[in-house]
Amino acid sequence: MTALSRRAFGAAAMAPLLVGCGGRADERTAGARRRSDGDRARQNSSTSQSANSARALGRSAPVRLLIPAIDVDTPVMRLGLAADGTVEVPPIAADDRAGWYRNSPTPGQVGPSVILGHVTVGGYGDGVFRRLKELREGDRIVARRQDGTSAEFAVGAVRTVAKAEFPAREVYGDVSGPELRLITCGGPRSGDEYRDNVIVFAKLSATSP
Protein backbone atom coordinates (compact mmCIF):
# COMPACT_ATOMS: atom_id res chain seq x y z
CA MET A 1 0.00 0.00 0.00
CA THR A 2 1.08 3.58 -0.49
CA ALA A 3 1.63 4.53 3.12
CA LEU A 4 0.24 2.02 5.58
CA SER A 5 0.72 -1.70 5.32
CA ARG A 6 -1.91 -3.50 7.38
CA ARG A 7 0.43 -5.57 9.53
CA ALA A 8 1.01 -4.89 13.22
CA PHE A 9 0.37 -6.52 16.55
CA GLY A 10 -1.76 -5.63 19.49
CA ALA A 11 -4.42 -6.30 22.08
CA ALA A 12 -4.11 -7.61 25.58
CA ALA A 13 -3.04 -11.10 24.59
CA MET A 14 -0.49 -9.76 22.11
CA ALA A 15 -1.92 -11.96 19.37
CA PRO A 16 -1.28 -10.94 15.74
CA LEU A 17 -4.04 -8.36 15.47
CA LEU A 18 -2.72 -6.42 12.51
CA VAL A 19 -3.19 -2.81 13.35
CA GLY A 20 -2.16 -0.03 11.01
CA CYS A 21 1.34 0.45 9.75
CA GLY A 22 2.94 -2.04 12.08
CA GLY A 23 5.39 -4.88 11.77
CA ARG A 24 6.44 -8.16 13.34
CA ALA A 25 7.97 -8.91 16.72
CA ASP A 26 7.82 -7.28 20.12
CA GLU A 27 11.43 -6.35 20.69
CA ARG A 28 12.12 -3.11 22.52
CA THR A 29 13.58 -0.37 20.40
CA ALA A 30 15.46 2.75 21.27
CA GLY A 31 15.93 6.00 19.46
CA ALA A 32 13.55 8.42 21.20
CA ARG A 33 14.01 11.75 19.52
CA ARG A 34 14.76 14.89 21.56
CA ARG A 35 14.78 18.62 21.08
CA SER A 36 16.64 20.85 23.53
CA ASP A 37 15.75 24.37 22.47
CA GLY A 38 14.39 26.76 25.08
CA ASP A 39 10.77 26.83 23.94
CA ARG A 40 10.49 23.06 24.04
CA ALA A 41 12.21 22.91 27.42
CA ARG A 42 9.72 25.36 28.93
CA GLN A 43 6.83 23.43 27.40
CA ASN A 44 8.23 20.17 28.76
CA SER A 45 8.32 21.59 32.28
CA SER A 46 4.74 22.80 32.03
CA THR A 47 3.36 19.58 30.58
CA SER A 48 5.26 17.45 33.11
CA GLN A 49 3.64 19.32 35.98
CA SER A 50 0.14 19.04 34.51
CA ALA A 51 0.62 15.37 33.62
CA ASN A 52 0.80 14.52 37.31
CA SER A 53 -2.68 15.91 37.96
CA ALA A 54 -4.55 15.03 34.75
CA ARG A 55 -7.55 12.81 35.41
CA ALA A 56 -8.57 9.89 33.26
CA LEU A 57 -11.77 10.24 31.26
CA GLY A 58 -14.55 7.82 30.44
CA ARG A 59 -15.00 6.26 27.05
CA SER A 60 -15.85 8.63 24.19
CA ALA A 61 -14.64 8.29 20.62
CA PRO A 62 -12.27 10.90 19.19
CA VAL A 63 -13.67 13.12 16.46
CA ARG A 64 -10.76 15.45 15.77
CA LEU A 65 -7.00 15.46 16.28
CA LEU A 66 -4.83 18.57 16.51
CA ILE A 67 -1.02 18.62 16.56
CA PRO A 68 0.02 22.29 16.43
CA ALA A 69 3.76 21.67 16.05
CA ILE A 70 3.28 19.97 12.68
CA ASP A 71 0.10 21.76 11.53
CA VAL A 72 -2.20 18.76 11.82
CA ASP A 73 -5.91 19.45 12.22
CA THR A 74 -7.81 16.40 11.03
CA PRO A 75 -11.15 14.70 11.52
CA VAL A 76 -10.81 11.23 13.02
CA MET A 77 -12.66 8.27 11.58
CA ARG A 78 -13.22 4.91 13.27
CA LEU A 79 -11.30 1.83 12.19
CA GLY A 80 -12.13 -1.77 12.93
CA LEU A 81 -10.95 -5.13 11.62
CA ALA A 82 -11.53 -6.34 8.08
CA ALA A 83 -12.88 -9.80 7.28
CA ASP A 84 -9.36 -11.17 6.87
CA GLY A 85 -8.38 -10.09 10.38
CA THR A 86 -6.38 -7.06 9.31
CA VAL A 87 -7.18 -3.63 10.57
CA GLU A 88 -9.08 -1.20 8.42
CA VAL A 89 -6.97 1.79 7.43
CA PRO A 90 -8.10 5.23 6.32
CA PRO A 91 -9.00 5.24 2.61
CA ILE A 92 -6.56 6.55 0.02
CA ALA A 93 -8.41 9.75 -0.79
CA ALA A 94 -7.93 13.45 -1.40
CA ASP A 95 -9.57 14.25 1.94
CA ASP A 96 -7.10 12.15 3.91
CA ARG A 97 -7.81 11.87 7.62
CA ALA A 98 -6.56 10.01 10.68
CA GLY A 99 -8.27 6.90 12.00
CA TRP A 100 -8.76 5.65 15.56
CA TYR A 101 -8.61 1.90 16.11
CA ARG A 102 -11.91 1.37 17.89
CA ASN A 103 -10.79 -1.72 19.81
CA SER A 104 -8.25 0.41 21.68
CA PRO A 105 -9.11 2.79 24.55
CA THR A 106 -10.44 6.18 23.55
CA PRO A 107 -8.08 9.14 24.08
CA GLY A 108 -8.13 10.00 27.78
CA GLN A 109 -9.12 6.53 28.97
CA VAL A 110 -6.59 4.45 30.87
CA GLY A 111 -4.53 2.50 28.36
CA PRO A 112 -2.91 3.14 24.97
CA SER A 113 -5.26 4.75 22.47
CA VAL A 114 -4.10 4.04 18.91
CA ILE A 115 -4.53 6.46 16.00
CA LEU A 116 -3.23 5.71 12.50
CA GLY A 117 -2.54 7.95 9.53
CA HIS A 118 -0.94 7.88 6.11
CA VAL A 119 2.35 9.52 5.26
CA THR A 120 1.44 9.60 1.55
CA VAL A 121 -1.83 8.93 -0.25
CA GLY A 122 -0.96 7.80 -3.75
CA GLY A 123 -1.56 10.35 -6.46
CA TYR A 124 -3.12 12.73 -3.95
CA GLY A 125 0.30 13.47 -2.44
CA ASP A 126 1.14 13.92 1.21
CA GLY A 127 -0.83 12.19 3.94
CA VAL A 128 -2.12 13.66 7.18
CA PHE A 129 0.81 12.21 9.17
CA ARG A 130 3.50 13.22 6.66
CA ARG A 131 5.38 15.25 9.32
CA LEU A 132 4.84 12.93 12.26
CA LYS A 133 8.56 12.15 12.59
CA GLU A 134 9.25 15.86 13.25
CA LEU A 135 7.53 15.78 16.64
CA ARG A 136 9.72 16.18 19.70
CA GLU A 137 9.41 15.55 23.41
CA GLY A 138 6.89 17.87 25.02
CA ASP A 139 4.92 18.68 21.87
CA ARG A 140 1.15 18.93 22.40
CA ILE A 141 -1.44 16.64 20.88
CA VAL A 142 -5.13 17.37 21.45
CA ALA A 143 -7.88 14.84 20.85
CA ARG A 144 -11.38 16.27 20.77
CA ARG A 145 -13.96 13.72 21.77
CA GLN A 146 -17.56 12.99 20.82
CA ASP A 147 -18.86 13.95 24.27
CA GLY A 148 -17.45 17.48 23.94
CA THR A 149 -14.42 16.93 26.16
CA SER A 150 -10.80 17.13 25.04
CA ALA A 151 -7.76 15.11 26.06
CA GLU A 152 -4.38 16.80 25.74
CA PHE A 153 -1.21 14.75 25.55
CA ALA A 154 2.51 15.52 25.75
CA VAL A 155 4.85 13.66 23.45
CA GLY A 156 7.31 11.50 25.35
CA ALA A 157 9.15 9.82 22.49
CA VAL A 158 9.15 9.53 18.71
CA ARG A 159 10.64 6.34 17.33
CA THR A 160 11.41 5.14 13.84
CA VAL A 161 11.67 1.36 13.84
CA ALA A 162 11.97 -1.31 11.20
CA LYS A 163 8.63 -3.04 10.60
CA ALA A 164 10.37 -6.34 11.30
CA GLU A 165 11.13 -5.05 14.81
CA PHE A 166 7.80 -3.44 15.61
CA PRO A 167 7.65 -2.99 19.44
CA ALA A 168 4.19 -4.45 19.91
CA ARG A 169 4.33 -4.71 23.70
CA GLU A 170 5.33 -1.09 24.05
CA VAL A 171 2.62 0.07 21.65
CA TYR A 172 -0.29 -2.08 22.81
CA GLY A 173 0.71 -3.36 26.24
CA ASP A 174 -0.96 -2.37 29.50
CA VAL A 175 -0.03 0.99 31.00
CA SER A 176 -1.08 2.57 34.27
CA GLY A 177 -2.54 5.78 32.85
CA PRO A 178 -4.06 7.32 29.72
CA GLU A 179 -1.61 7.27 26.81
CA LEU A 180 -1.67 7.84 23.06
CA ARG A 181 0.08 6.12 20.16
CA LEU A 182 0.26 7.68 16.71
CA ILE A 183 1.49 5.41 13.92
CA THR A 184 2.47 5.93 10.31
CA CYS A 185 5.13 4.68 7.89
CA GLY A 186 8.59 6.07 7.28
CA GLY A 187 12.16 5.37 6.36
CA PRO A 188 13.35 4.29 2.91
CA ARG A 189 10.67 3.71 0.30
CA SER A 190 10.53 0.99 -2.33
CA GLY A 191 7.65 1.44 -4.74
CA ASP A 192 4.54 1.93 -2.64
CA GLU A 193 6.04 0.41 0.51
CA TYR A 194 8.05 1.91 3.35
CA ARG A 195 10.60 -0.05 5.35
CA ASP A 196 9.89 1.48 8.76
CA ASN A 197 7.21 2.68 11.12
CA VAL A 198 7.16 6.04 12.87
CA ILE A 199 5.56 5.73 16.30
CA VAL A 200 4.73 8.58 18.66
CA PHE A 201 4.33 7.79 22.36
CA ALA A 202 2.45 10.38 24.41
CA LYS A 203 0.91 10.68 27.88
CA LEU A 204 -2.14 12.56 29.07
CA SER A 205 -1.23 16.02 30.38
CA ALA A 206 -4.60 17.77 30.73
CA THR A 207 -8.33 17.40 30.11
CA SER A 208 -11.07 19.90 29.51
CA PRO A 209 -14.85 19.60 29.86
Summarize the structure in words.
The chain has one domain: Sortase, Chain: A, CATH 2.40.260.10. The chain starts with 37 loop residues before the first helix and ends with a strand. By secondary structure, it is mainly β. Strand 7 and strand 8 (193-208) form a beta hairpin. The protein has an eight-stranded mixed barrel with strand order 1-2-3-4-7-8-6-5. It has two helices and eight strands. It has helices at 38-51, 168-172; strands at 62-67, 72-79, 98-101, 111-116, 140-145, 150-162, 178-190, 193-208.
What is this structure, in a nutshell?
With 209 residues, the protein is mainly beta. The chain has helices at 38-51, 168-172; strands spanning 62-67, 72-79, 98-101, 111-116, 140-145, 150-162, 178-190, 193-208. It is built from two helices and eight strands.
Widest sheet, order of strands:
1-2-3-4-7-8-6-5
Helical percent range? under 10%
Annotation, overall tally of beta strands? 8
**CATH architecture descriptor text:** Beta Barrel
Question: How would you summarize the topology of this molecule?
Answer:
Layout: H1 38-51, E1 62-67, E2 72-79, E3 98-101, E4 111-116, E5 140-145, E6 150-162, H2 168-172, E7 178-190, E8 193-208
Parallel strand pairs: 2-3, 4-7
Antiparallel strand pairs: 1-2, 1-5, 3-4, 5-6, 6-8, 7-8
Task: Label this structure with key terms.
single chain; 209 residues; mainly beta; Sortase, Chain: A; 8-stranded mixed beta barrel; globular; disordered N terminus
